Amino acid sequence: MDEFFERRIVDTGRLPLFCFFVAFIVTFVLTRVNVRLIRANVRWWFRNVTAGDVHIHHVVFGVVLMLLGGVAGFAVPSAHSWPNVLAASVFGMGAALVLDEFALILHLQDVYWTEKGRASVDAVFVAIAVTGLLLLGVHPLGLTGIAQPDPGEEVTRPVLLVVYVASLSVNLALAVIALLKGKIWTGLLGLFVPVVLFVGAARVARPGSPWSRWLYAPGSRKYRRAVRREERYRRPIIRAKIWIQEFIAGRHDLLPPESRRRRSGPGRTGDPGVPDRRDRRSPVD
Fold first, then answer.
1. pLDDT tens digits for range 69-92
2. What is the dihedral of CA 37, 42, 45, 48, to 10 degrees?
3. Is pLDDT at 146 greater than 70 in this prediction?
4. Are 98 and 63 in contact (CB under 8 A)?
5. Is 51 helix (H, G, I), strand (E, B) or coil?
6. What is the dihedral of CA 165, 170, 172, 175, to 10 degrees?
7. How far apart are the C-alpha atoms of 127 and 27, rounded to whole Å?
């Protein structure tokens, strides 16, 4: 194991990336444990950080840590020195805190425990997947650059460059099509495994995606086919993904607190922290 780590991580210059990866995962897990204990009102645990009436979200601490880690990383001249490794770890901690509240940044609202808050967990999963692939030496769209030519290859190098640029352009176009069809994970994975992009771009779009709204008329054959595929294949995957998300990150309420307060009435739960079961909706992704 030590030899494998030395050969695949240290010798390849990926030690800072590895430290970022580990710090990111550990910080995210500890953050979710912390917020779940706070939400459960455990007596012996910490409480939310406040300044007067202002709740200081942990994204604030994340931004500070990312700034410190980023500046320190630029300031250290060698990528293999321990200060650079430490800077990468600090940056990973900050990135985890920021992405854990990605939904708050996206919506500019405190939607942490609402259905919209699942976007934060999605963002964390994407970051972990992309970083993990980079650690394995898989590069997006083959962006490793063209190797320096050996003597006598001056003629073939322009040809290789044209092929490389053409391949890159095609892959980027296919990735955009897959994303427009609502296939986020297919588009992102395809950046590292280009053959996946052909499948994602060729298959029917998801209902509600920009591609479907632009090109599939309601009731058309393609639209009905998209709905059938969504119900048959996509829904079970979404339910499994939500189960995994909530197992790791905690249960997200399907209605925001303000909506639950508006719906509270005689015979209904008025506590904004306890959603009424009659207000729950089937998850739609």
1. 999 988 877 766 788 899 999 999
2. 70
3. no
4. yes
5. strand
6. -160
7. 13
pLDDT cut 70: percent of the chain above it: 82
Instruction: For the chain, give the percent of residues with pLDDT over 90.
Output: 30
Q: What is the model's pTM?
A: 0.74
Q: Which residue in this structure is represented by tokens 């994340």?
A: 62
Q: How many angstroms separate the CA atoms of 55 and 212, rounded?
A: 41
Alpha-carbon gap, residue 184 to 179, rounded angstroms = 5
Each residue's pLDDT tens digit, 169-205: 888 899 999 999 988 888 888 888 888 889 889 999 9
Q: What is the Cα–Cα distance from 249 to 233, expressed in whole angstroms?
A: 24
**Of the candidates 271, 242, 259, the residue with the CA atom closest to the CA atom of residue 117:** 242
* E-strand stretches of the chain: 50-51, 54-55
Tokens 């920021």 correspond to what residue?
98
Q: Which two tokens stand for residue 67?
A: 């700034």
> Which pair of structure tokens corresponds to residue 125?
């999963």
φ, ψ (nearest 5 deg) of residue 251: -70, 130
Average pLDDT, the chain: 81
* b/e 206-236 (16+ beta carbons within 10 angstroms → b): bbebebbeeebeeeeeebeebbebbeeebee
Rounded to whole angstroms, what are the CA distances from 249 to 33, 41, 279, 280? 8, 16, 22, 19
